[in-house]
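Our consortium's second objective concerns turning raw sequence data into structural hypotheses that experimental partners can test. To show how far this objective has progressed, the report includes one record in full. It was chosen at random from the queue rather than selected for favorable results. The single chain below, 271 residues long, was entered without modification.
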Amino acid sequence: MKLGKKRIHIAPVGFEIDRIVIPAVDNKADKVFLLVHNNIKEDKASPYAEQIIKQLKSNKIESEKIQVNWRDVESITKATRRLILEQFGNDIFVNVASGSKNHAIALDRAIMTLEDQTGIVEFYAESEKYEGFKPGKQQLSTGVKDTKTIPKRQMILPTGKLRSALFILYKNSLKQNGTCTFPCKEEHPLQVEDSKGDGHIWGSMRKKDLANECVKQDLIPSTGNILTALDKNIIQKLDSDWEYIDITKIGQSHHVSLTTAGMAFIYEMSP
C-alpha cells in the first residue's frame, strides 16, 4: 500500500486514447479518473474507455470511471469539483484535452471555484497527428506532441455568510411543491421568467422570513432593524455583484428567490 501523496489524473473520455494514456504514463500516475457519459446507450465513447483502461492497466496504473452527463456543463463541474476535493492533498493533474468542449469548460470552471488550488495542475495534451476519423474504429488523433500547463485562475465567488444565505434560499426552494430542482431541462407550468430573464423561478421566501433565518444562523445581527441589515450585508451584494438573487413584490411583501445563475452556483458547490 502506497503512503503519502499520490499522482492523480482526471480526464474526460471522448474519442481519444493517447492523449489520456501517454500523459498518465509520462507523469507516473497512480490513478486516472475517467469521466464517462452517464447514459450507456448513448455513449459512443465506451470502446475508447475500455481501451484506455486496458492500456493503463498494462502500465500498472489504476483507473476508475466517474459518470457525468457530457451535455451538461453544471453536471461535469459539480462532479469534478467533488472529485478534486475528495483527492485534495494528492498531486492532481486535470486533462482538458481529451473530451468535448463542454468537458474542457467544466473542468476549468471546477478548478476556478476552489479557494485552495494547491497541488492542482491543469494541462492540455497537444496531439502529434490527427487521423481520418471513424467513430469506434480509431482515435481522433495519435501521439502527444507536447503537454502544456494551463495557468490557474480563481473565480471571485460569494463565500461565508453570503454563501450561507444562498443555501437558505436553495433549501427553501426544494421544500416548495411545484418548483423545479436544478438542473431542470423541462418546461414547467409554474415556471415564470424572472426580472433578469433567466427563464425559471426556483421558489421564493418572504424577505422577513429570510431575515429571521439569517438571524438564527448568525449571518446578520439580531439587534436593530434586521431587514436593513439583510439588505446591507446580504441582498445588495448577492444582487449587484453576482445577480444570484431576484427580488419581487407579491401583495404587500417583498420576496427573495434564486436566479438560475444562483441556483447553478449552489448546485455546483453543494456536495
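The partners drew two points from this record. DSSP finds eight helices and nine strands in the chain. Strands lie at 7-12, 31-37, 62-68, 91-95, 120-130, 141-150, 204-206, 245-250, 253-258. Both points have been shared with the crystallography group to help prioritize constructs.
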